[in-house]
Write a structure and sequence with these properties.
The chain has 391 residues and is an alpha/beta fold. Helix content is 43%, strand content 10%.
Length: 391
């Protein structure tokens, strides 16, 4: 399906000066206001009502639903408040749901990309032996202090999981956990854990675009046969959904996009080159300060001489029009965020299956708790894990 509709989602909307779709779809998009487009983001039913006729197969996929299975809200692990102090409410809820899906086992636990080891610490409080591996020494130190404070069986190893030292922490008799390890960090885990023969893995992937390669390298044989040729920019589409931050963050995001569009318009006007030249990621303070200061800094980054006088109001007015155009294109592209993520997660699940694991793919919490709610569980030692069906 992704291949069939590739031209609707595999494009760079910031580089488009006109709607790139079929006439009927373009007319529909032109009829939608800024408010209506914003409302579509969180309304799958309205998305289906508007776009179901254009992409009928898309809305037959179960992943387009954001409903939370009833069993996910029941029997969540509870910890004393003094143990969870300092863990944000949404993060704590993610950990609770992640742990709810943890298969009973006597295997020692390895927490991959642990940060301060919140996940591992809460499991150690239940009597599990936990090793937490993290590359930032300060986070390891803070985690060690917390574990010692509560006299928990949790130790930290400060190591880069992309290095041989990080891989050395893996062992056959382990149950490995990774809650939202990014890109290459969880890909490395899949490859190395299957090579070592770790008995069980449970991971929720995140940030698929954070890879060293320019293009995504499919893991499973099936995905290699149907390679979508995904660039890092394409992979970003899978993680663009946001459920946090509130109105202030949303306004700042709109300002950032509008100002970037304004700079692109100015650059095109000054150089007569309409090709999109993206700016790098910038600190957020640039988008809450002075607009002209942002333009000057952006021009400096791309070695673009600026005129002494710039009509900022006129430029921002044009950028607002371009932003509305961008919203209309993204209204279509964003329909494919979840299917693209499912493709990536299935590639990981099938890869583990090829390595001899039994695999189960599910969601572990509501979409509103985290959009990155896909869960992969894999196991080899059937005597250590119970009640698990295969993919």
């Amino acid at each position: 399906m992704l291949q069939r509709y590739q031209r609707y989602w595999q494009l760079q909307p910031m580089a488009r000066s006109a709607l790139p779709f079929d006439d009927a779809l373009n007319r529909l998009l032109q009829s939608l206001s800024h408010t209506e487009l914003a409302a579509l983001e969180d309304n799958p039913e309205q998305q289906q009502q508007l776009f179901g006729g254009f992409f009928p197969e898309l809305f037959t996929l179960p992943v387009t639903s954001r409903a939370e299975p009833a069993e996910l809200a029941e029997n969540l692990p509870e910890w004393p408040f003094w143990l969870t102090n300092g863990i944000g409410g949404r993060k704590l809820s993610q950990i609770q749901h992640f742990c709810q899906q943890l298969a009973p086992s006597k295997l020692p636990l390895l927490e991959w990309c642990a940060g301060k080891g919140h996940l591992g610490r809460l499991l150690a409080a239940q009597g599990r032996q936990v090793t937490s591996v993290e590359w930032q020494a300060e986070l390891c130190r803070q985690g060690e202090v917390l574990a010692a404070q509560f006299q928990l069986p949790q130790r930290f190893i400060c190591a880069d999981v992309l290095s041989s030292a990080g891989n050395a922490v893996l062992a056959p008799q382990q149950q490995v956990l990774a809650l939202h390890a990014c890109g290459d960090l969880h890909i490395q885990l899949l490859k190395q854990a299957s090579t070592v023969g770790c008995a069980a893995l449970q991971l929720a992937p995140c940030c698929y675009h954070l890879i060293a390669a320019e293009y995504y390298q499919p893991l499973s044989t099936l995905a290699q046969q149907h390679n979508l040729q995904l660039s890092r920019q394409d992979l970003k589409l899978a993680v663009q959904a946001q459920v946090t931050g509130g109105e202030r963050v949303a306004r700042l995001r709109q300002t950032e996009v509008s100002w970037r569009l304004a700079y692109q318009l100015l650059r095109t006007e000054l150089t007569a080159d309409a090709r999109y030249q993206p700016l790098p990621s910038l600190p957020k303070h640039w988008f809450s300060g002075d607009f002209n200061a942002f333009l000057a800094y952006a021009a400096q980054l791309q070695q673009l001489p600026l005129p002494a006088l710039i009509d900022g109001e006129a430029l921002l007015a044009k950028a607002d029009e371009a932003y509305l155009q961008l919203q209309r294109i993204d209204a279509v592209r964003h329909l494919f965020r979840r299917p693209l993520e499912l493709y990536l997660v299935l590639d990981r699940a099938l890869y583990l299956q090829q390595q001899g694991y039994q695999v189960q793919l599910s969601v572990f919490c509501a979409y509103q708790i985290t959009p990155r709610n896909f869960l992969i569980r894999a196991w080899r030692d059937t005597s250590a894990l119970t009640n698990r069906s295969s993919l």
